[in-house]
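Appendix C reproduces, verbatim, an entry submitted by the partner laboratory led by Prof. M.T., so that reviewers can inspect both the input and the predicted structure.
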Amino acid sequence: MELITVESYEDRQILAFPDFRGPIVSVLLAAAQGDLVSGTVLGKNTGTGKYEKYTAATFATLATGVVGNNNAITYTAKSGGTAAHGIKIQHKDPAGNSQALNVTIENDTIVVSLATSEAGAITSTAADVIAAVNAALGVKNLVTVANTGASDGSGVMTAMAATALAGATDANVTPSIILAEEMPNQATDVNVRAYLGGPFYTSLLVGMDAAAKAAMGARMIEDITIVPV
Protein backbone atom coordinates (compact mmCIF):
# COMPACT_ATOMS: atom_id res chain seq x y z
CA MET A 1 0.00 0.00 0.00
CA GLU A 2 1.35 3.42 -0.95
CA LEU A 3 2.53 5.75 1.81
CA ILE A 4 1.49 9.39 1.93
CA THR A 5 2.97 12.31 3.86
CA VAL A 6 0.67 13.60 6.58
CA GLU A 7 2.68 16.28 8.37
CA SER A 8 6.26 17.45 8.82
CA TYR A 9 7.93 17.57 12.23
CA GLU A 10 11.35 19.19 12.68
CA ASP A 11 13.68 17.28 10.31
CA ARG A 12 11.38 14.27 10.13
CA GLN A 13 8.23 13.42 8.23
CA ILE A 14 5.20 11.62 9.59
CA LEU A 15 3.84 9.14 7.06
CA ALA A 16 0.60 7.19 7.05
CA PHE A 17 -1.19 4.60 4.95
CA PRO A 18 -4.09 6.09 2.93
CA ASP A 19 -7.52 5.40 4.47
CA PHE A 20 -5.96 4.34 7.78
CA ARG A 21 -5.66 7.78 9.35
CA GLY A 22 -7.54 8.15 12.62
CA PRO A 23 -10.27 10.75 13.14
CA ILE A 24 -9.47 14.21 14.48
CA VAL A 25 -10.45 14.74 18.12
CA SER A 26 -10.17 17.58 20.63
CA VAL A 27 -7.90 17.04 23.65
CA LEU A 28 -6.68 19.21 26.53
CA LEU A 29 -3.04 20.24 26.07
CA ALA A 30 -1.14 21.14 29.25
CA ALA A 31 0.27 24.65 29.54
CA ALA A 32 3.93 25.52 28.86
CA GLN A 33 4.66 22.87 26.21
CA GLY A 34 6.62 25.30 24.05
CA ASP A 35 5.89 26.14 20.42
CA LEU A 36 4.48 22.99 18.80
CA VAL A 37 4.22 22.31 15.08
CA SER A 38 1.54 20.23 13.44
CA GLY A 39 2.69 16.62 13.59
CA THR A 40 4.07 16.76 17.15
CA VAL A 41 3.56 13.46 18.98
CA LEU A 42 1.60 13.82 22.24
CA GLY A 43 0.68 11.56 25.13
CA LYS A 44 -1.59 11.75 28.16
CA ASN A 45 -0.12 12.43 31.59
CA THR A 46 -1.96 9.84 33.67
CA GLY A 47 -1.63 11.99 36.77
CA THR A 48 -3.20 15.17 35.38
CA GLY A 49 -5.25 13.74 32.52
CA LYS A 50 -3.75 16.40 30.22
CA TYR A 51 -1.69 15.87 27.07
CA GLU A 52 2.00 16.76 26.83
CA LYS A 53 4.65 16.72 24.12
CA TYR A 54 6.20 13.25 23.99
CA THR A 55 9.86 13.10 25.03
CA ALA A 56 11.54 9.77 24.37
CA ALA A 57 13.45 7.86 27.03
CA THR A 58 17.23 8.24 27.10
CA PHE A 59 19.76 5.45 27.50
CA ALA A 60 21.79 4.44 30.55
CA THR A 61 25.57 4.28 30.15
CA LEU A 62 28.71 3.26 32.02
CA ALA A 63 32.18 4.59 31.12
CA THR A 64 35.33 2.91 32.37
CA GLY A 65 39.05 3.03 31.65
CA VAL A 66 41.29 5.94 30.63
CA VAL A 67 41.33 7.48 27.15
CA GLY A 68 45.06 8.21 27.43
CA ASN A 69 45.70 4.52 28.14
CA ASN A 70 43.58 3.49 25.14
CA ASN A 71 41.42 1.26 27.35
CA ALA A 72 38.45 3.60 27.80
CA ILE A 73 35.14 2.04 26.79
CA THR A 74 31.50 3.00 27.25
CA TYR A 75 28.62 0.59 27.75
CA THR A 76 25.17 1.73 26.57
CA ALA A 77 21.87 0.00 27.34
CA LYS A 78 19.97 -1.30 24.32
CA SER A 79 16.63 -0.17 25.78
CA GLY A 80 15.87 3.37 26.91
CA GLY A 81 14.64 4.21 30.39
CA THR A 82 15.68 3.89 34.01
CA ALA A 83 14.95 0.15 34.14
CA ALA A 84 18.44 -0.28 32.66
CA HIS A 85 19.91 1.13 35.88
CA GLY A 86 19.46 -2.41 37.18
CA ILE A 87 22.15 -3.71 34.80
CA LYS A 88 25.65 -4.00 36.29
CA ILE A 89 29.00 -4.60 34.59
CA GLN A 90 31.99 -6.32 36.20
CA HIS A 91 35.48 -6.68 34.73
CA LYS A 92 36.83 -9.65 36.62
CA ASP A 93 40.44 -10.65 37.17
CA PRO A 94 40.09 -14.46 37.22
CA ALA A 95 43.21 -14.73 39.41
CA GLY A 96 44.54 -17.62 37.39
CA ASN A 97 47.13 -18.37 34.74
CA SER A 98 46.33 -18.69 31.01
CA GLN A 99 42.64 -17.87 31.43
CA ALA A 100 40.48 -17.15 28.37
CA LEU A 101 38.29 -14.07 27.95
CA ASN A 102 34.71 -14.97 28.81
CA VAL A 103 31.42 -13.04 29.06
CA THR A 104 28.50 -14.33 31.14
CA ILE A 105 25.42 -13.05 32.94
CA GLU A 106 25.19 -13.70 36.68
CA ASN A 107 21.91 -12.47 38.18
CA ASP A 108 21.83 -8.72 37.38
CA THR A 109 25.51 -8.50 36.42
CA ILE A 110 27.30 -8.91 33.09
CA VAL A 111 30.60 -10.48 34.11
CA VAL A 112 33.54 -9.98 31.75
CA SER A 113 36.21 -12.40 32.95
CA LEU A 114 39.45 -11.06 31.47
CA ALA A 115 42.08 -13.20 29.75
CA THR A 116 45.44 -13.72 31.47
CA SER A 117 48.97 -14.70 30.50
CA GLU A 118 50.89 -17.77 31.66
CA ALA A 119 52.05 -15.63 34.57
CA GLY A 120 48.51 -14.58 35.47
CA ALA A 121 48.69 -10.98 34.21
CA ILE A 122 45.61 -9.57 32.47
CA THR A 123 46.06 -9.52 28.68
CA SER A 124 42.60 -8.59 27.36
CA THR A 125 42.61 -5.28 25.52
CA ALA A 126 39.66 -2.92 25.25
CA ALA A 127 39.20 -4.07 21.65
CA ASP A 128 39.03 -7.68 22.84
CA VAL A 129 36.36 -6.83 25.41
CA ILE A 130 34.32 -4.81 22.91
CA ALA A 131 34.31 -7.69 20.43
CA ALA A 132 33.44 -10.29 23.08
CA VAL A 133 30.61 -8.32 24.71
CA ASN A 134 29.01 -7.28 21.43
CA ALA A 135 29.01 -10.90 20.25
CA ALA A 136 27.89 -12.61 23.48
CA LEU A 137 24.45 -14.21 23.30
CA GLY A 138 22.00 -12.59 25.70
CA VAL A 139 24.46 -9.86 26.62
CA LYS A 140 24.29 -8.16 23.22
CA ASN A 141 20.54 -7.78 23.71
CA LEU A 142 21.11 -5.81 26.92
CA VAL A 143 24.05 -3.52 26.11
CA THR A 144 26.45 -2.41 23.43
CA VAL A 145 30.00 -1.25 24.10
CA ALA A 146 32.40 0.93 22.12
CA ASN A 147 35.63 2.87 22.49
CA THR A 148 35.29 6.15 24.37
CA GLY A 149 36.39 9.26 22.50
CA ALA A 150 39.90 9.00 21.03
CA SER A 151 40.68 5.72 22.82
CA ASP A 152 41.69 3.20 20.12
CA GLY A 153 41.10 -0.02 22.08
CA SER A 154 44.72 -1.17 22.13
CA GLY A 155 45.20 -0.72 25.89
CA VAL A 156 45.01 -3.57 28.39
CA MET A 157 41.92 -3.61 30.59
CA THR A 158 41.91 -3.47 34.38
CA ALA A 159 39.60 -5.16 36.86
CA MET A 160 36.42 -3.29 37.87
CA ALA A 161 33.92 -4.16 40.59
CA ALA A 162 30.30 -4.63 39.55
CA THR A 163 28.99 -1.15 38.68
CA ALA A 164 25.50 -0.20 37.53
CA LEU A 165 24.66 1.69 34.36
CA ALA A 166 23.25 5.16 35.11
CA GLY A 167 22.04 8.43 33.63
CA ALA A 168 18.89 7.30 31.81
CA THR A 169 15.52 9.03 31.88
CA ASP A 170 12.08 7.57 31.19
CA ALA A 171 9.69 8.83 28.53
CA ASN A 172 7.42 11.45 30.07
CA VAL A 173 4.24 9.99 28.52
CA THR A 174 3.16 7.12 26.28
CA PRO A 175 2.76 8.43 22.69
CA SER A 176 -0.90 8.20 21.73
CA ILE A 177 -1.97 11.02 19.39
CA ILE A 178 -0.50 13.44 16.85
CA LEU A 179 -1.15 17.18 16.93
CA ALA A 180 -3.18 18.26 13.89
CA GLU A 181 -2.50 22.00 14.10
CA GLU A 182 0.28 24.44 14.90
CA MET A 183 0.15 25.60 18.52
CA PRO A 184 2.34 28.38 19.97
CA ASN A 185 3.36 28.13 23.60
CA GLN A 186 0.40 28.65 25.94
CA ALA A 187 0.46 29.99 29.50
CA THR A 188 -2.71 28.03 30.32
CA ASP A 189 -4.18 24.67 29.32
CA VAL A 190 -5.84 24.74 25.90
CA ASN A 191 -7.96 22.41 23.77
CA VAL A 192 -6.25 21.33 20.54
CA ARG A 193 -7.12 19.17 17.55
CA ALA A 194 -5.22 15.89 17.15
CA TYR A 195 -5.30 12.70 15.10
CA LEU A 196 -6.74 9.90 17.22
CA GLY A 197 -4.64 6.75 17.53
CA GLY A 198 -5.68 3.14 17.71
CA PRO A 199 -5.73 0.61 14.87
CA PHE A 200 -6.51 3.38 12.39
CA TYR A 201 -3.15 5.09 12.59
CA THR A 202 0.44 3.97 12.84
CA SER A 203 3.05 6.66 12.23
CA LEU A 204 6.55 6.24 10.92
CA LEU A 205 8.89 9.06 11.86
CA VAL A 206 11.41 9.09 9.05
CA GLY A 207 14.35 11.47 8.86
CA MET A 208 17.96 12.05 9.77
CA ASP A 209 19.35 13.11 13.11
CA ALA A 210 22.15 15.65 13.34
CA ALA A 211 24.89 13.06 13.89
CA ALA A 212 23.79 10.99 10.90
CA LYS A 213 23.66 14.07 8.69
CA ALA A 214 27.16 15.08 9.73
CA ALA A 215 28.58 11.59 9.33
CA MET A 216 27.07 10.11 6.19
CA GLY A 217 23.53 11.31 5.74
CA ALA A 218 22.30 7.90 6.85
CA ARG A 219 18.54 7.55 7.10
CA MET A 220 17.31 7.09 10.67
CA ILE A 221 13.96 5.35 11.16
CA GLU A 222 11.92 5.26 14.36
CA ASP A 223 8.61 3.40 14.61
CA ILE A 224 5.93 4.72 16.95
CA THR A 225 2.65 2.85 17.12
CA ILE A 226 -0.14 5.21 18.08
CA VAL A 227 -2.32 3.53 20.71
CA PRO A 228 -5.93 4.26 21.74
CA VAL A 229 -6.47 7.19 24.11
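The chain has two domains: 24-56+173-219, 59-164. Additional entries are available on request from the coordinating office.
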